[in-house]
Write a structure and sequence with these properties.
About 40% of the residues lie in helices and about 20% in strands. With about 120 residues, it is α+β, with helices and mostly antiparallel strands. The protein has a single domain, classed as Alpha-Beta Plaits (2-Layer Sandwich). The protein is globular, with a radius of gyration of 18 Å. It starts with a helix and ends in a 10-residue tail after the last helix. About 20% of the residues are buried. The chain binds copper (II) ion (CU). The site of copper (II) ion has 6 residues, from helix 2.
């Protein structure tokens, strides 16, 4: 067990050094983006967005703030970018910043998730 912890620690140190060489502001390539998702209304919407985004391996965490209509996404910078994430949200049927929802996906959402727009 102790050996395991030492190995993990060493790996972190090595990782930290190589990350610093490339870009000092990013810790092992994990980035966070805040996306305006004005059409989220209920927990079903939250589930739909989380399921869609988390099925992508490059996306590490998804939080949806229903009150502020914001979606916070943590992702691996070298594997995906913010625009691709917005496109995924659109494909799920929701507006994401300047990218409008995919109409077909929106039509398939449950009635409680449709804002009628
Ligand atoms: Cu909903």
């Amino acid at each position: 067990m102790n050996k395991f912890i030492i190995i993990i620690t060493v790996l972190f140190i090595i990782n930290g050094c190589s990350a610093k060489k490339n870009n000092e502001s990013e810790i092992i390539g994990l980035k966070k983006v805040q996306i305006h998702t004005p059409s989220v209304m209920c927990n079903m919407c939250v589930n739909t967005i989380q399921k869609t985004l988390l099925s992508n391996d490059a996306i590490k965490s998804v939080e949806v703030d229903l009150n502020r209509k914001l979606t916070f996404v943590e992702y691996l910078n070298e594997s995906i970018n913010a625009d691709s994430i917005k496109n995924l949200i659109s494909q799920a049927g929701y507006d994401a910043d300047d990218i409008p929802r995919n109409r077909d996906s929106y039509n398939q959402l449950p009635a409680c998730c449709k804002d009628g727009k």
